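Figure 3 (text version): C-alpha coordinates given as input.
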Protein backbone atom coordinates (compact mmCIF):
# COMPACT_ATOMS: atom_id res chain seq x y z
CA UNK A 1 0.00 0.00 0.00
CA UNK A 2 2.76 2.40 0.99
CA UNK A 3 4.80 1.40 -2.07
CA UNK A 4 1.83 2.07 -4.36
CA UNK A 5 1.31 5.46 -2.80
CA UNK A 6 4.98 6.30 -3.25
CA UNK A 7 4.88 5.26 -6.90
CA UNK A 8 1.81 7.36 -7.69
CA UNK A 9 2.59 10.88 -9.02
CA UNK A 10 1.76 13.81 -6.80
CA UNK A 11 -1.13 16.07 -7.71
CA UNK A 12 0.15 18.79 -10.03
CA UNK A 13 3.39 16.94 -10.77
CA UNK A 14 4.34 16.99 -14.48
CA UNK A 15 3.98 13.61 -16.12
CA UNK A 16 6.69 12.44 -18.54
CA UNK A 17 5.87 13.34 -22.16
CA UNK A 18 5.09 10.34 -24.32
CA UNK A 19 5.26 11.09 -28.03
CA UNK A 20 2.27 10.12 -30.11
CA UNK A 21 2.91 6.95 -32.13
CA UNK A 22 2.17 8.82 -35.35
CA UNK A 23 4.73 11.49 -34.43
CA UNK A 24 7.36 8.84 -33.70
CA UNK A 25 6.62 7.14 -37.01
CA UNK A 26 6.90 10.39 -38.97
CA UNK A 27 10.22 11.22 -37.31
CA UNK A 28 11.41 7.70 -38.09
CA UNK A 29 10.44 8.06 -41.75
CA UNK A 30 12.04 11.52 -41.98
CA UNK A 31 15.29 10.33 -40.35
CA UNK A 32 15.60 7.25 -42.58
CA UNK A 33 14.69 9.22 -45.70
CA UNK A 34 17.37 11.81 -44.94
CA UNK A 35 19.91 9.01 -44.42
CA UNK A 36 19.07 7.59 -47.87
CA UNK A 37 19.19 11.09 -49.38
CA UNK A 38 22.68 11.61 -47.96
CA UNK A 39 23.72 8.18 -49.23
CA UNK A 40 22.62 9.09 -52.77
CA UNK A 41 24.30 12.50 -52.63
CA UNK A 42 27.56 10.95 -51.43
CA UNK A 43 27.41 8.42 -54.28
CA UNK A 44 27.15 11.28 -56.79
CA UNK A 45 29.96 13.10 -55.03
CA UNK A 46 32.23 10.12 -55.74
CA UNK A 47 31.43 10.37 -59.48
CA UNK A 48 32.08 14.03 -60.39
CA UNK A 49 31.69 13.30 -64.10
CA UNK A 50 28.01 12.50 -63.54
CA UNK A 51 27.41 15.81 -61.79
CA UNK A 52 29.24 17.66 -64.57
CA UNK A 53 27.12 15.91 -67.20
CA UNK A 54 23.76 16.77 -65.67
CA UNK A 55 24.83 20.41 -65.31
CA UNK A 56 26.59 20.75 -68.67
CA UNK A 57 23.70 19.38 -70.74
CA UNK A 58 21.14 22.13 -69.91
CA UNK A 59 23.86 24.80 -70.11
CA UNK A 60 24.77 23.49 -73.56
CA UNK A 61 21.15 23.72 -74.70
CA UNK A 62 20.94 27.25 -73.32
CA UNK A 63 24.05 28.43 -75.15
CA UNK A 64 23.29 26.64 -78.44
CA UNK A 65 19.77 27.99 -78.73
CA UNK A 66 20.82 31.43 -77.52
CA UNK A 67 23.61 31.93 -80.06
CA UNK A 68 22.87 29.49 -82.90
CA UNK A 69 19.08 29.62 -83.28
CA UNK A 70 18.22 32.80 -81.39
CA UNK A 71 18.76 35.15 -84.30
CA UNK A 72 16.52 33.08 -86.59
CA UNK A 73 13.52 32.74 -84.24
CA UNK A 74 11.46 35.94 -83.88
CA UNK A 75 9.49 36.24 -80.63
CA UNK A 76 7.15 38.81 -79.15
CA UNK A 77 8.45 39.10 -75.60
CA UNK A 78 10.34 41.75 -73.69
CA UNK A 79 14.08 41.12 -73.74
CA UNK A 80 14.14 39.07 -76.92
CA UNK A 81 14.74 35.40 -77.50
CA UNK A 82 16.97 34.79 -74.48
CA UNK A 83 14.09 35.70 -72.14
CA UNK A 84 11.74 33.51 -74.18
CA UNK A 85 14.20 30.61 -74.10
CA UNK A 86 15.02 30.36 -70.40
CA UNK A 87 11.68 28.97 -69.11
CA UNK A 88 11.71 26.35 -71.88
CA UNK A 89 15.18 25.17 -70.90
CA UNK A 90 14.08 24.99 -67.26
CA UNK A 91 11.15 22.72 -68.21
CA UNK A 92 13.41 20.54 -70.34
CA UNK A 93 15.94 20.37 -67.50
CA UNK A 94 13.25 19.26 -65.06
CA UNK A 95 12.18 16.48 -67.42
CA UNK A 96 15.67 15.20 -68.25
CA UNK A 97 17.19 15.55 -64.78
CA UNK A 98 14.28 14.00 -62.92
CA UNK A 99 14.17 11.00 -65.23
CA UNK A 100 17.49 9.95 -63.72
CA UNK A 101 15.39 8.65 -60.79
CA UNK A 102 14.22 5.66 -62.81
CA UNK A 103 17.71 4.93 -64.14
CA UNK A 104 19.20 4.96 -60.63
CA UNK A 105 16.45 2.73 -59.21
CA UNK A 106 16.89 0.25 -62.06
CA UNK A 107 20.63 0.13 -61.37
CA UNK A 108 20.04 -0.46 -57.65
CA UNK A 109 17.61 -3.25 -58.44
CA UNK A 110 20.24 -4.98 -60.57
CA UNK A 111 22.88 -4.64 -57.84
CA UNK A 112 20.51 -5.90 -55.15
CA UNK A 113 20.82 -2.69 -53.14
CA UNK A 114 17.06 -2.28 -52.76
CA UNK A 115 16.71 -5.85 -51.44
CA UNK A 116 19.40 -5.16 -48.84
CA UNK A 117 17.75 -1.90 -47.80
CA UNK A 118 14.37 -3.61 -47.51
CA UNK A 119 15.85 -6.19 -45.16
CA UNK A 120 17.13 -3.51 -42.77
CA UNK A 121 15.13 -2.16 -39.78
CA UNK A 122 14.16 1.07 -41.50
CA UNK A 123 11.06 2.73 -42.91
CA UNK A 124 10.06 1.00 -46.13
CA UNK A 125 9.15 4.32 -47.74
CA UNK A 126 12.60 5.80 -47.05
CA UNK A 127 14.14 4.34 -50.22
CA UNK A 128 11.72 6.16 -52.52
CA UNK A 129 11.56 9.34 -50.42
CA UNK A 130 15.35 9.46 -50.10
CA UNK A 131 15.79 9.08 -53.85
CA UNK A 132 13.20 11.80 -54.44
CA UNK A 133 14.92 14.15 -51.99
CA UNK A 134 18.34 13.64 -53.57
CA UNK A 135 17.01 14.15 -57.09
CA UNK A 136 15.22 17.36 -56.09
CA UNK A 137 18.41 18.73 -54.52
CA UNK A 138 20.27 17.85 -57.70
CA UNK A 139 17.57 19.53 -59.82
CA UNK A 140 17.65 22.67 -57.67
CA UNK A 141 21.44 22.94 -57.99
CA UNK A 142 21.21 22.45 -61.75
CA UNK A 143 18.54 25.15 -62.09
CA UNK A 144 20.54 27.63 -60.01
CA UNK A 145 23.64 27.06 -62.16
CA UNK A 146 21.51 27.43 -65.27
CA UNK A 147 20.05 30.69 -63.96
CA UNK A 148 23.54 32.11 -63.38
CA UNK A 149 24.57 31.14 -66.93
CA UNK A 150 21.35 32.61 -68.36
CA UNK A 151 22.02 35.91 -66.59
CA UNK A 152 25.50 35.88 -68.09
CA UNK A 153 24.10 35.68 -71.63
CA UNK A 154 21.46 38.37 -71.21
CA UNK A 155 18.42 36.84 -69.49
CA UNK A 156 16.58 38.94 -66.90
CA UNK A 157 13.58 38.30 -64.66
CA UNK A 158 11.20 41.06 -65.74
CA UNK A 159 8.42 40.37 -63.22
CA UNK A 160 10.08 40.74 -59.81
CA UNK A 161 11.63 38.47 -57.22
CA UNK A 162 8.51 36.71 -55.89
CA UNK A 163 7.32 35.45 -59.30
CA UNK A 164 10.90 34.27 -59.96
CA UNK A 165 10.81 32.19 -56.76
CA UNK A 166 7.37 30.85 -57.70
CA UNK A 167 8.76 29.81 -61.09
CA UNK A 168 11.52 27.80 -59.38
CA UNK A 169 8.96 26.18 -57.06
CA UNK A 170 6.75 25.28 -60.03
CA UNK A 171 9.77 23.73 -61.74
CA UNK A 172 10.52 21.66 -58.60
CA UNK A 173 6.88 20.53 -58.42
CA UNK A 174 7.14 19.47 -62.05
CA UNK A 175 10.33 17.61 -61.12
CA UNK A 176 8.47 15.72 -58.35
CA UNK A 177 5.86 14.54 -60.87
CA UNK A 178 8.51 13.42 -63.36
CA UNK A 179 10.39 11.64 -60.54
CA UNK A 180 7.23 9.70 -59.69
CA UNK A 181 6.73 8.72 -63.33
CA UNK A 182 10.41 7.88 -63.64
CA UNK A 183 10.43 5.77 -60.46
CA UNK A 184 7.48 3.75 -61.73
CA UNK A 185 9.22 3.23 -65.06
CA UNK A 186 12.55 2.22 -63.52
CA UNK A 187 11.03 -0.19 -61.02
CA UNK A 188 8.80 -1.75 -63.70
CA UNK A 189 11.30 -2.07 -66.58
CA UNK A 190 14.29 -2.81 -64.28
CA UNK A 191 16.89 -2.08 -66.95
CA UNK A 192 18.66 1.28 -66.99
CA UNK A 193 19.30 1.35 -70.74
CA UNK A 194 15.64 0.63 -71.51
CA UNK A 195 14.54 3.25 -68.99
CA UNK A 196 16.80 5.84 -70.60
CA UNK A 197 15.52 4.98 -74.07
CA UNK A 198 11.92 5.24 -72.89
CA UNK A 199 12.65 8.62 -71.32
CA UNK A 200 14.01 10.03 -74.56
CA UNK A 201 10.99 8.71 -76.47
CA UNK A 202 8.52 10.87 -74.57
CA UNK A 203 10.69 13.78 -73.35
CA UNK A 204 12.00 14.86 -76.76
CA UNK A 205 8.64 15.06 -78.60
CA UNK A 206 6.82 16.76 -75.72
CA UNK A 207 9.66 19.27 -75.25
CA UNK A 208 10.11 20.25 -78.87
CA UNK A 209 6.42 20.12 -79.86
CA UNK A 210 5.70 22.85 -77.33
CA UNK A 211 6.35 26.59 -76.99
CA UNK A 212 9.56 25.83 -75.07
CA UNK A 213 11.93 26.87 -77.86
CA UNK A 214 9.73 28.28 -80.64
CA UNK A 215 6.36 30.09 -80.55
CA UNK A 216 3.48 27.73 -81.15
CA UNK A 217 2.07 30.03 -83.87
CA UNK A 218 5.09 29.17 -86.05
CA UNK A 219 4.03 25.50 -86.11
CA UNK A 220 1.58 23.93 -88.57
CA UNK A 221 -2.05 24.52 -87.65
CA UNK A 222 -2.78 20.87 -86.87
CA UNK A 223 0.13 20.84 -84.39
CA UNK A 224 -0.65 24.09 -82.56
CA UNK A 225 -3.54 22.69 -80.51
CA UNK A 226 -1.39 19.87 -79.16
CA UNK A 227 1.57 22.18 -78.48
CA UNK A 228 -0.58 24.59 -76.47
CA UNK A 229 -2.48 22.01 -74.41
CA UNK A 230 0.02 19.27 -73.62
CA UNK A 231 1.44 19.51 -70.07
CA UNK A 232 4.98 20.65 -70.93
CA UNK A 233 3.56 23.45 -73.08
CA UNK A 234 1.28 24.59 -70.25
CA UNK A 235 4.09 24.52 -67.67
CA UNK A 236 6.34 26.48 -70.03
CA UNK A 237 3.76 29.19 -70.64
CA UNK A 238 3.08 29.55 -66.90
CA UNK A 239 6.80 29.81 -66.09
CA UNK A 240 7.24 32.34 -68.89
CA UNK A 241 4.41 34.45 -67.48
CA UNK A 242 6.03 34.30 -64.03
CA UNK A 243 9.38 35.35 -65.52
CA UNK A 244 8.27 38.07 -67.87
CA UNK A 245 4.77 39.07 -66.75
CA UNK A 246 1.45 38.23 -68.31
CA UNK A 247 -1.77 36.39 -67.47
CA UNK A 248 -1.22 33.72 -64.82
CA UNK A 249 -4.68 32.38 -64.02
CA UNK A 250 -5.43 30.17 -67.03
CA UNK A 251 -2.13 28.32 -67.23
CA UNK A 252 -1.90 28.43 -63.42
CA UNK A 253 -4.98 26.28 -62.79
CA UNK A 254 -4.16 24.08 -65.77
CA UNK A 255 -0.66 23.48 -64.37
CA UNK A 256 -2.14 22.63 -60.96
CA UNK A 257 -4.60 20.15 -62.49
CA UNK A 258 -1.86 18.42 -64.51
CA UNK A 259 0.50 18.27 -61.52
CA UNK A 260 -2.09 16.85 -59.12
CA UNK A 261 -3.51 14.46 -61.71
CA UNK A 262 -0.18 13.04 -62.86
CA UNK A 263 1.11 12.69 -59.30
CA UNK A 264 -2.11 11.00 -58.18
CA UNK A 265 -1.64 8.43 -60.97
CA UNK A 266 2.09 7.74 -60.91
CA UNK A 267 2.92 8.04 -57.20
CA UNK A 268 0.71 5.05 -56.23
CA UNK A 269 2.00 3.13 -59.25
CA UNK A 270 5.59 3.80 -58.15
CA UNK A 271 4.86 2.64 -54.60
CA UNK A 272 3.17 -0.51 -55.92
CA UNK A 273 6.09 -1.26 -58.23
CA UNK A 274 8.51 -0.72 -55.32
CA UNK A 275 6.64 -3.18 -53.12
CA UNK A 276 6.75 -5.79 -55.89
CA UNK A 277 10.42 -5.17 -56.76
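Below: residues designed for each position.
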Amino acid sequence: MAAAAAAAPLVGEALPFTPHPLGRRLRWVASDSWAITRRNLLAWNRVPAYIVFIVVQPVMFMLLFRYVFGGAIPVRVKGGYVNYLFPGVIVQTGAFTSFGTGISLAQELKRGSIDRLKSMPMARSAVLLGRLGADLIRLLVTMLVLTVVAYGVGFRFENGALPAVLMILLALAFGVVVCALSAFTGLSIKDEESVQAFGFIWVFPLTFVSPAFVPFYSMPGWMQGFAKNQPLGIFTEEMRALCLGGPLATHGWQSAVWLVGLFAVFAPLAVRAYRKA
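The longest helix spans residues 161-189.
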